[in-house]
Write a structure and sequence with these properties.
There is one protein chain. With 149 residues, the protein is mainly α. Helices cover 38% and strands 0% of the residues. Helix 1 (18-37) runs antiparallel to helix 2. It is globular, with a radius of gyration of 17 Å.
Length: 149
């Protein structure tokens, strides 16, 4: 995940309408800072990054919803957010494709990151899993992001 870049003075000014979005993105930035500084004592090794992944997903989904669903922001603001790392452009590109509308992270669809060369367990529809079994993704802590759930 790229870090959010601060715009340098004189190089790239935020587009008009940015002030409406800025307080929410600053709130996400503060949550991200808190998640990064959170103690990992008592957590499994894989659980230490789950909070960061969750906030990254929420921030990208927020910008995606504003631009594609609600049409509340302009293309200039959307491009500015992508360019400065406020949203993950690759994840948003997957959300636009059929079957990936609820995708939690890009690691879950990369077969090279799993033992058996398939996608993550969170991509399996809940009706195909055993009843009463709790499933958590090792990459991001997702409990199910299949598009049929």
């Amino acid at each position: 995940m790229p870090k959010v870049q601060a715009s340098r003075r004189g190089k790239m000014q935020p587009p008009e309408g940015w002030s409406d979005l800025e307080p929410t993105l600053e709130e996400f930035k503060q949550k991200m800072r808190d998640a990064e500084n959170e103690s990992t004592a008592g957590k499994r090794k894989v659980e230490s990054t789950w909070a960061v992944m969750r906030i990254h997903h929420q921030r990208s989904r927020y910008i995606y919803d504003l631009f594609y669903k609600r049409k509340a922001i302009s293309r200039e603001i959307y491009d500015y957010c992508l360019k400065n790392g406020y949203a993950d452009g690759n994840l948003i590109a997957k959300w636009k494709k059929q079957g990936f509308e609820k995708l939690c992270c890009l690691q879950c669809i990369q077969p090279r990151d799993t033992n058996y060369g398939t996608t993550c367990i969170c991509r399996v529809p809940k009706e195909k899993l055993e009843k009463g079994r709790t499933v958590e993704c090792v990459h991001c802590g997702c409990r199910g992001c299949a598009s049929t759930d």
